[in-house]
Each structure stands twice: as C-alpha cells, then as structure tokens.
Amino acid sequence: MGINLSGRSFLKLLDFTPEEMRYLLDLSADFKRMKRCGTPHRYLEGKNIVLLFEKTSTRTRCAFEVAGMDLGMGVTYLDPGSSQMGKKESISDTAKVLGRMYDGIEFRGFSQEHVEELAKSSGVPVWNGLTDSFHPTQILADLLTIEEKFGGLKGVRFTFMGDARNNMGNSLMVGCAKMGLHFTACAPAELFPDEKLVEECRRIAKKTGGSIRLTDDVAVGAGGADVIYTDVWVSLGEPDDVWEQRISLLKRYQVNRKVMNFAAPGALFMHCLPSFHDLNTTIGQSISERFGIDEMEVTDEVFNSKASVVFDEAENRMHTIKAVMYATLK
Predict the structure, then answer these.
(1) Catalytic status, residue 245
(2) Is 285 a catalytic residue?
(3) What three-state secondary structure class fits 49?
(4) For the segment 183-234, what is each residue's pLDDT rounded down to a tens digit?
(5) What is the pTM (predicted TM-score) of this model?
(6) Coil, strand, or helix at residue 62?
(7) Is residue 308 packed enough to be buried (19+ CB in 10 Å), middle (13-18) or exposed (0-12)?
(8) Catalytic residue among 59, 135, 157, 277
C-alpha cells in the first residue's frame, strides 16, 4: 500500500514513520527537479494557506511563500503584530476561524503546545515552522542535503556541536534516529538533550540501524564524523542576559578548522542559519564589543569553506516544505 499523508498535520518527526519520511524526501527531490527544469507544478490551485509567525524568519517565510505559490495556492502572511492569537483570542478560537477560511496553517512560534492546539482545533493540516521544542521542516531539508552529497543516509556519522537540548538538537536527533544515521550530541553535559527523548530515539535507532551517543569531548564527538552541524548559541526569544553564560559553556565547541580536521575526509559542515561567523550583523558587533569574540558557533573560515553546504540546506527548505504541503493537502 502506498503512503498517504492527506489531511495529516506536520508537527514533529516523532509522528512519522521512516517510510513516511522516505516518501517526503523522495517527493522533495522530485519537486526540486521540476523547479530546476522549469516544469510547472500548480497541483494545489484554488487552495489557500495562512502563515502565522510569532517568531520572525527569512528562510521559513520565503520557503513557505514560494512553495505555496509554486503549487498554485494563495498565501496569507500574518506577522507577530497582525493576529490576535493568544492576546484577544484564544489559540483554539483562532484555529477554528482560520480552519474555516484556509486549507492549511503554518505556525512558527514559541510553544509546541500552541502548534498542537492549532492542529487539534482547526480541522485542517497544520505545519510546524519552528517551536522551542522542534523544527521538523529544517530537518527534512538537512536530510535531503546529506543524501544529495553522500548518495544515502543510512550509516552516515552525524555530529551536532553546541546546545544539544534546543529545538535543532532535539529534531536532528529524532531525524537521524528515524533514518538510520549515527547521531552524536557533542555538548557540555548540562546542555545534553532530555533523557526521555534520548531513550526514545535510542529505541527508534535500534530498529533502523542508527545509534545515539552523547559526549562532552570535542575530539571524540567530531572524530570520524561525516557531518559536523552547529547552531547559534542563543536562540531567538531567549533573554539577552544568557549570552555570557552560553559563551562560557560553548566556546570550546566552536566549529573551527581544528574540529573539522577531527572529522572524516570529505566531511560536510552544516548550519540551519542565521549564523554569527563574522561581524556583519548588529548582534555579531554587539557580542564582539561586549565579550571580545569576533566569531561564535563557527569560524568564518569553515563557514565559507568547500565543506560548507549551508546554502544548499537553505534552498532545500523550499523543496521539502513544498513536499510536506502537497502531501498533506492533495
């Protein structure tokens, strides 16, 4: 029997089987070929979607908007100041209203509970564009990128460096477990992922041929890795006063030339973006002035090296999001 995701929401990768994720990745690759060949694919003409953003974004918004328009849909964007959700109107009531007007809802914000409530109450597919707990559309794009570069996913040795208990650490661990990669979280012990999620991922990985490992040793964590992945040290929405503590904890986990030399020959560098690899941002300048560091989670040398596939990942957000929307709305 074929895979059918019609009417499903896309809230976290734990909700999907490896076979369903394989279907979405293959569909993403098909859409990418069509996009690059200029083949029209307005398969969802006449449908409308709404994008709800509590947290601002470049890649997520643009990926959803372009993907939606390529599929022939009408797209409405509501920024943090354009909706009454959670202020004058409950999440549940907002969901019920939007579900009567739109065929699908994207949510990017803080609480995983909010996106779950939208899905429960709206009656239409809801897609998680990021919460504090999970970032599933990013992980599909990352997996597609790895597969494009290595020709497959199973057995790839993947290391995440940094705050491993954040939404990216959580989601990458789940995605790797589901698809049979060997995942390592390389971080200070106090920034390891939640123990219950680790155990759940280990149970999944046991079935798929993957593995889960936690270490605070940079040489061990990066040693022999096919992929070195990192993320910003302070996420959008976190208080400004955490910078000093986070820099102190994570500065030895910066991805630099030494770290990449620990990795396997031909290893990739990956990052979900934005990245503080230079002083060409206001935040980068501010942190440099306050703490005397000019590069944070990754050096500019690595970010702009031949190993870096960060812009391939960014493009693949569009193709994988298109696949998710098509699969759940067709």
Answers:
(1) no
(2) no
(3) strand
(4) 999 999 999 999 999 999 999 999 999 999 999 999 999 999 999 999 999 9
(5) 0.96
(6) helix
(7) buried
(8) 135
